[in-house]
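Why do we bother with holo predictions? Because pocket geometry can differ from the apo form. Keep that in mind while you read this record for manganese (II) ion.
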Amino acid sequence: MSSMELERLREELDAINKDLLGLLSRRGRIAQEIGIIKEAQGVAKFDPARENQMLGELAELNEGPFDDATIKQLFKHIFKASLELQKPDARKQLLVSRKRQSEDTVVQAKDILIGGGAHLMVAGPCSVESYEQVRTVAAAMKAAGVRVIRGGAFKPRTSPYDFQGLGVEGLRILKEVADEFDLVTISEIVHPNHIELAQQYIDVIQIGARNMQNFELLKAAGEARIPVLLKRGLAATMDEFLHAAEYVVAGGNSQVMLIERGIRTYEKWTRNTLDISAVPLLKQESHLPVLVDVAHSTGRKEIMLPCAKAALAAGADGIMIEVHPDPPTALSDAEQQLTIPQFEQFFAQLKASGLFHER
Ligand code: PEP
Ligand code: MN
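The structure, written out:
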């Protein structure tokens, strides 16, 4: 075959590609029109019987050289892409997606802004145990320049025999101490009915890993007007995590933060496995602030500092860590809570690394 002949055939292919593109675009526009009619009629967009019939007819007419299976496969792709065109925009791109909103969401909890460049440190005990305990931590946090304190009042524990938290009394303690030191509070809520109540006491509600797919809780959080810190489920994929956040945002509450807290893997040297890749992925795919909980993800005090550095280097908007005045006596997560001096050192070293940028 001469090179001139090859050139001619290639030109012929290029022309066919253009014809095919024109036909595909025409087909796409018709599919969109059909989609509008089906939407108005309230009929399902996907019609498997009709799709089967079209594929059968095409196979009948097929003269080769592609075999019937290949033809069917190619057309199935076209049908699927056409179906996508029929979906309303809202279902194609999640509200939490960067494709829907390119600029970072900045969450506001009282006077604290989270996301959009500066870093946030969230520290405090795993559980609220007493007024004195929270007050001691709060005073130290304030002195260290930390304005956001955490503390669980409703504790989702693996065993029903373990400390379940002080409940509303715990929220009340958080409020009293936060008022004294001008702090912002985060606490986990585990029941949809408690969200309204929680708003009287705390500034951010946490939805814990075990409740990431508690859809009624997510919907209730969506109706609330209080920022939400959503933890990644114990074995949740990125897709599941973002869809969980979508429940809250779709419900009308755009003030959502995501927090990677480690996932369950076969590794036993850490409590969970910190999925650092989740940070750039979430930042890329979503406009919501992304935090990293170095306490629950690692469960090991001696690696929390490098993991926090890694999180910030990967693009996280903030860090969460647990601090207790006397960790060995803690009623939950005793082994992973830092003492106050340990926290002070941790925070000083993180700032000295140059990775932590305050607003
Ligand atoms: C917590 O932060 O107190 C907690 C229980 O964490 P997680 O839901 O990530 O296990
Ligand atoms: Mn804990």
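The longest strand covers residues 120-124.
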